[in-house]
Specification:
With 128 residues, the chain is α+β, with helices and mostly antiparallel strands. Helix content is 55%, strand content 14%. α5 packs across α6 and α5 runs antiparallel to α7. It is globular and about 50 Å long. The N and C termini lie far apart (44 Å).
């Protein structure tokens, strides 16, 4: 088998649907015993070292779904509104895998709007 370049791999991934890409990521994680979430944990662990000044100047926020609460179906509907291009299955999987980041590196206004919508549907949300 010929070795594919990074560009060729990216071209192949661009042709996949979100569902196919999600299945690929799961298979990749199982095969190599890794998780795609690991870099996020490393970045979050490095954040406290930046100090209080960095927290005041923060302009990018992550919206984290802590739990769906009692109204999971309503939360799934709102997650589909908030996260562009998300199908029903992907939204359901996202909600069921809580705690999970729903939006990453968004403005404060976008994070607050998403938090308000999701809490209105019954979810527990944190903004980091």
């Amino acid at each position: 088998m010929a070795k594919l370049s990074t560009e060729e791999l990216l071209d192949q991934f661009k042709e996949l649907t979100l569902l196919e890409l999600s299945e690929f990521v799961k298979a990749f994680e199982e095969t190599f015993e890794v998780t795609a979430a690991a870099p996020v944990a490393v970045a979050a662990a490095g954040a406290p070292a930046a100090g209080a000044e960095a927290a005041e100047e923060q302009d990018e926020f992550d919206v984290v779904l802590e739990s769906a609460g009692d109204k999971k179906i309503q939360v799934i509907k709102v997650v589909r509104e908030v996260v562009a291009g998300l199908g029903l299955k992907e939204a359901k999987d996202l909600v069921e895998s809580a705690p999970k980041a729903i939006l990453e590196k968004v403005s404060k206004e976008a994070a607050e709007a998403a938090k308000e919508k999701l809490e209105g549907a019954g979810a527990k949300i944190s903004v980091k």
